[in-house]
Specification:
single chain, 413 residues, alpha/beta, Aspartate Aminotransferase, domain 2, Aspartate Aminotransferase, domain 1, 2 domains, 7-stranded mixed β-sheet, 3-stranded antiparallel β-sheet, 14 helices, 40% helix, 12% strand
């Protein structure tokens, strides 16, 4: 295959269609649709929010914890979680992660007992946390599930979001459910739902001009992330948007815009089939990489069914990560080192050390393209490009000490 900038494989897709754009424009003149239409997320009460992080802030406010309470969360996660905790008037209590599944370590949660009044279980990349252990350790403390990466992921037959007191979703461009922006809170506890309803009712609607601007920007982003355009415009723009944090979540206290809600409802109908296709692509990619030594792949936890929102791979160290990423892009397969800056960001919210696995993972993790719109041929190209790039680096370098965290494949369920 001729590899050039016109047939690159972007780091992720943005499945926002012309029909979504039409639904967004039409929704600007209508009422806010009912969130209860999202029946695939269960029957608990649902609340539209301005973003996923805003949903977390408001859920913490609705819990009515004593001011400056500790809220436990994994260090290796979106740093905006810590910002939302601080905005709600509380303190992040940073915990380490399991080196195999990259979710909150229940043993570290147990060690921190007495330092927190609530727990945030982040289902990172679509892989559910060990909720049985988390619930056991957390005891009577409320549990908020961050399900932004995990719509239609399951553990022991139960869907993400069904374990805790409440959960949150995000419809931002980089999430599994890219309606353009906005978020959702799903509340399983009736008393908490009453308080949440009161808080959501105070949010003002965003200005009309901003809604129109956001719709246009979302449509443009979806075009940029096509294989034909990404190598010419998307990859160069990526450095600019990353530097200026244009895609970072915000904590503005405004309601969800009607267009986001309408598109989220529209996309929900196609979500199950898209998850199955992305899952099949990911399992094919996994099968081609399983024989490689000294990497950690996203095998499913026993009893889990992963939606494979992202396909994380742990390499030996940051030098190897950087070399592989550069070599893969030379063959026009893009990758991402998501949350690489999470440790430094969390130091601004009080992290001073004590999470060695998280610190190691942040420096050596990349994600490979695995989304539903990729063909079998594309997935094979991703696998071949990764393998050849990694081999070239390792062949050119003598053996050197590596991190010991998690460099063994876990048992496959």
């Amino acid at each position: 295959m001729l590899v050039n900038r016109f047939n690159s494989i972007p780091r992720f897709a943005l499945p926002y269609t012309l029909g979504d754009f039409g639904a967004a424009v039409s929704a600007m003149l209508g009422p806010l649709p009912e969130a209860r239409g999202l029946g695939l997320l269960g029957t608990s009460e649902k609340f539209w929010t301005g973003s996923g992080r805003q949903a977390l802030q408001m859920l913490l406010m609705a819990l009515k914890l004593e001011r400056n309470s500790g809220v436990a969360l994994p260090l290796f996660a979106d740093p905006s979680l810590a910002a939302a905790i601080a905005a709600a008037g509380h303190r992040p209590v940073f915990l380490d992660i399991d080196p195999r599944f990259l979710t909150i370590d229940p043993d570290h949660l147990d060690v921190a007992n007495g330092k927190y009044k609530a727990v945030i279980a982040v289902h990172l990349f679509g892989q559910l946390s060990d909720m049985t252990a988390v619930q056991s350790v957390a005891a009577d403390h409320p549990i908020i599930e961050d399900t932004a990466h995990a719509p239609l992921s399951f553990l022991h037959g139960r869907q993400a979001g069904d374990f805790g007191d409440c959960s949150l979703y995000s419809f931002a461009s980089t999430k599994y459910w890219p309606a353009g922006g906005g978020g959702l809170a799903v509340v399983n506890d009736p008393d908490l739902a009453v308080r949440m309803r009161e808080i959501v009712a105070t949010l003002p609607a965003p200005p009309m001009f901003r809604q129109l601007r956001n719709i246009i920007m979302q449509a443009m982003k979806s075009l940029v992330f096509t294989p034909q355009a990404y190598g010419i415009t998307g990859r160069p723009l990526r450095r600019w948007t990353d530097r200026l944090a244009l895609l970072e979540p915000r904590l503005e206290q405004v309601a969800i815009q009607r267009s986001y809600a309408a598109v989220a409802l529209r996309q929900a109908a196609a979500m199950p089939s898209r998850v199955e296709t992305q899952r099949a692509n990911s399992l094919r990619l996994l099968s081609q990489l399983v024989a490689i030594e000294d990497i950690v792949l996203p095998f499913e936890r026993l009893g889990a069914r992963y939606n494979y929102h992202l396909f994380p791979v742990l390499l030996r160290d940051s030098r190897e990560r950087d070399a592989v990423m550069s070599a893969m892009w030379e063959r026009r397969v893009d990758t991402s080192m998501i949350y690489a800056n999470s440790i430094d960001e969390c130091r601004r919210f009080g992290y001073t050390g004590g999470c060695p696995v998280s610190e190691s993972v942040a420096g050596r993790l990349i994600t490979l393209p695995n989304y539903a719109s990729l063909s079998v041929r594309d997935i094979d190209r991703v696998a071949d490009t990764f393998i050849s790039s990694l081999r070239a680096w390792r062949t050119s370098r003598p053996a050197y000490p590596i991190h010991s965290f998690g460099l063994k494949h876990p048992a496959v369920s």
